[in-house]
Amino acid sequence: MATTGSPTFPEVGGHAALDLVDTVHWRLDPRRSIDTLGTFDDVVAWCDQMGVLPGSAEQVTRLAASAPEAAAREHAAVLALREAVYQAVFESSAAAADHVAAEHVAALGRATFERDADQVSWSWRLPADLSGPRSAVALLAHSLLTSDLAAARQCGDDACGWVYLDTSPRHNRVWCTAAGCGNRNRVARHQAKRRTARPDGARPA
Ligand SMILES: [Zn+2]
Prior knowledge:
Elements: H1 16-21, E1 24-25, E2 34-35, H2 40-50, H3 57-66, H4 68-90, H5 94-110, E3 112-115, E4 122-125, H6 132-145, E5 152-154, E6 163-165, H7 178-201
Antiparallel strand pairs: 1-2, 3-4, 5-6
The structure holds zinc ion (ZN).
C-alpha cells in the first residue's frame, strides 16, 4: 500500500501499548469495528509515529515489498500481540500474558545489548529488519504488563472500546476523549432526557 503522508494514529492511552490497542476503532461493536492497522506498512507507520521503529520506515517498507509473505506473517504477529495486550490487561487472561512474555523473550533473543551513544548506559538494540516492528511492540507490551495497571480503563462509551491510563487527579476519567465520546454521550443523554420528559412537560390545553 502506498502511503500518502503519514497517517495519524490516536495517542490517548498514556502508554504506547495502550495506544496500540486503540488502533482498533469501535472495538466493542463488531458491526462498526475498524482496524487501522490493515497492512504491515500501517504497522511500520504506527511504530514510526511512536518513535519505536528500529531503522527507517523507508528501509523496512522496502524490505516488506521484497518479501511480502514474511511481512504478512509479521503483520499478523503484531495484531496477535495487540490483542494479547488487550486480553491480558482488560480480561486478565493468563494465556495472553504468556503470549506477551514469549514474544518479549524472542525479541530480546533477536536483539543485541549495546553501549549507548552517550557512553553512560547500555540498552537493547533491535534489528532494523522485518522483525523490527514486532520486536518493538513486544517490548512495549512487556513494559505495560510489568507496570502498575491499577489505572487502566476502557472508555465508557458502549461501542468505542479505546483504552487508557486514568491519570486524572481524582481518577474519574470516563471517556477516551472529552471532545469525542464524552461530548457525544452527553448530547445523547440530554436528548433521551428531553424525549422522556416531553409527555409530562406538554403544555396543558
Ligand atoms: Zn471513547
